[in-house]
Write a structure and sequence with these properties.
alpha+beta; 3 strands; three-stranded antiparallel beta sheet
């Protein structure tokens, strides 16, 4: 993460949620449901795109409108 990302997050970011790995997700201070809103992640540790869970990936790429705040994946055998 660089200083530019931190400044941009501080000025325009609205905290949306956090995943089980500690990655923090943000969107513009505007409504995050808008199509033109920007969404980004601040990684906890090494910056590696494969560390984003699938449900958060869908939210980042605007495949879903609502962030997966209380997402628990359960299998049929659980």
């Amino acid at each position: 993460m660089n200083i530019g990302t931190l400044i941009y997050t501080w000025l325009t970011g609205q905290y949306v949620g956090k995943d089980k790995d500690g990655n923090k997700y943000y969107s513009n201070k505007r409504n995050y449901k808008l199509k033109k809103s920007k969404r980004w992640v601040i990684f906890n540790g090494e910056v590696e795109a494969s560390r984003i869970p699938p449900h958060w990936h869908a939210w980042l790429h605007k495949m879903t409108d609502e962030p997966p705040l209380n997402y628990e994946h359960s299998y049929i055998w659980q």
